[in-house]
Amino acid sequence: MFRDLVRTRALEERLENLLKQGHVVGGLYRSLGQEATAVGTAMALDDGDWLAPSIRDLGAVLVRGLPPVDVVLQYTARAAGPCSGKDNTNHYTVVDLGILGPVSPLGTQLCVLNGVALTFRNRGSDRVCMTYQGEGATRTGASHEGLAFASALRLPIVVVIEHNRWAFSTRSEQLAAVRDWADVPKAYGVPTISVDGNDVLACREAGVEAVSRARRGDGPTVIVAETYRMVGHAQHDPQSYMPAEELEEWRGRDPIARYERYLLEQGLITSDELLSIRHEVDAELDAAVDQALAAAMPQPLEARTRVYDAPEPDVTPWTRGPGVAGPGAALVRT
Ligand SMILES: Cc1ncc(C[n+]2csc(CCOP(=O)(O)OP(=O)(O)O)c2C)c(N)n1
Q: Is 7 touching ligand 1 by the criterion CB < 6 Å?
């Protein structure tokens, strides 16, 4: 878990550098300060389970086994990346690893993942699905519908609410009248687990409890992880609205430093071993960046493939046909 926490932060640092160097031109949303929530909860899943990450869950994606080089290929829009260069932020799905990529309309991922979970159930499989939402995303109609549906059908699904205090520049207190976000799922009869989102062990424990419940057929669980977004919404956001003293306070609860202290205090690892993990991660990620930057850009015609279900859609242009002129003329393919 320590390795995955460090990999998450270090990979995001490299992506940020690549963005500043002009190699990444899409959005970059970091999970700085909240890595433990994604890493810890995703640890609870088994092979064959499905995961729908939000924009701040790179840690969960790495835990599921996506090689960092694929992440860099994606962000630098290379042909060999998960989207073959069509998207250069985090909208990628990796079917083989059970990763259902984020889509921009917040909350909707839960509805789609419900479909995956229902399919598993209908096929008699005991696979489990896990998804993540910021507290802002829980304010959407799609999120409420998704929770209502999952609860009514007792679907094998775990929803992790990442309560990181901000939805872009809006404070979470301005988003709802409830003060405890764990109160919301109660209205749907969904059990909740509140957890310190900066404590990776507690997150894993909450994940294990929720995943076990789903796997034995007892329906959905919502995990509410209390954490903090230490950076702006995305790289273009100077986070000027975030009070310095609040950031300072949360810096003291940094999930990686905290877990490192725990491992050392418990005598589970030496500082030399921790350092060598960090060095191994640096070497792995440096190689990933070099490999991605040396990789080819997509050919223009690649834009036509893997967009629709049909293998090769007919993209012959439509034009106005002969006969009646003007907007009433029939559209024909030339
Ligand atoms: C339905 C919808 N409304 C608004 C947006 C624009 N938007 C993208 S991210 C974001 C903030 C999300 O906040 P939250 O869900 O709390 O997640 P966080 O960014 O804090 O992780 C907003 C408003 C959107 N993508 N979809």
A: no
